[in-house]
Design goal:
alpha+beta, single chain
């Protein structure tokens, strides 16, 4: 290439660079891959958007504490609606086992399904009282025997297979749900920890890193629950359940189904 052409090319390159330096490019804000948006962000969750840590937890507590409470006897019919089998309207899907069972088989006998408190009633001593004892966001239909095996155990990994448990495991101090229910359980437990903060006559429920919590108002293990939330994202079944509770019963939502990334933002 002749020297004059080289000089012209360099001059053009320098001029072009100068022009580009003068251009102000739009600032791009990265959105975390796990972040979600919902139709409720500008209404229901408007006071929580953009917050994290204790500020987010406090805002969510205020939001979800506005709810309609139902009686424990009313929970039977409510679960028949919230946990209805999408492929068979006469059945409900059971937590832990994943079995589809007739709605009419609700009760306490072998082969029946009953009302499982994922946040065990004894962890905070709230029993079946209207409030935490009847909150549909942590109550699920479960096989009577599987429910009995779970008892009031904390949640953790490990153990031996639960008979008819769909892959769930149990040991002396903890219960591990089947993979398809791990995220559900995590989000239900963490909902309870935000909803019940000790300001309404009930215990302040909190997750911790222990098992064998007994009657203390704690549930473990938090690190495992967080991992389960990541491992098993909200399913269509879980999202529909959240909507039915909001529309037809309690008129409040589980924020961790709508925004699973808020688990990490708080804990």
């Amino acid at each position: 290439m002749p020297a004059t052409q080289i000089r012209r090319w360099k001059t053009l390159a320098v001029a072009t660079s100068a022009v580009l330096v003068g251009i102000t490019l739009p600032t791009l804000t990265a959105t975390p891959a796990s972040a979600t948006t919902t139709a409720y962000d500008s209404t229901y969750y408007k006071n929580a958007i953009g917050k994290s840590g204790t500020s987010l937890k406090s805002s969510l507590h205020t939001i979800i504490s506005s709810q309609t409470k139902i009686s424990y006897s009313a929970v039977w019919n409510a679960l028949m609606a919230t946990d209805q089998d999408p492929n068979n309207s006469s059945n409900v899907i059971l937590l832990y086992s994943g079995v589809s069972r007739a709605k009419s088989l609700n009760g306490g006998d072998v082969g029946d399904w009953n009302r499982e408190h994922t946040w065990a009633k004894s962890h905070g001593d709230f029993g079946e009282v209207t409030g935490p004892g009847t909150d549909l966001h942590h109550l699920r239909p479960a096989d009577v025997q599987v429910n009995s095996i779970r008892g009031n155990l904390d949640f953790d990994n490990g153990g031996s297979a639960v008979t008819n448990g769909g892959g769930s495991k149990v040991d002396s101090d903890s219960f591990e749900p089947r993979d398809a229910d791990k995220g559900d359980v995590a989000r239900m437990i963490l909902y309870m920890a935000v909803r019940y903060e000790g300001d309404d006559g009930f215990a302040n429920l909190e997750p911790n890193e222990k098992v064998n919590n007994g009657s203390n108002p704690y549930m473990g293990k938090l690190s495992v629950l967080k991992a389960w939330n990541e491992q098993d994202p909200p399913s269509a079944f879980e999202e529909k359940r959240n909507q039915v509770i909001y529309d037809s019963y309690q008129h409040n939502r589980n924020p961790f189904i709508d925004h699973p990334e808020w688990v990490e933002a708080i804990w």
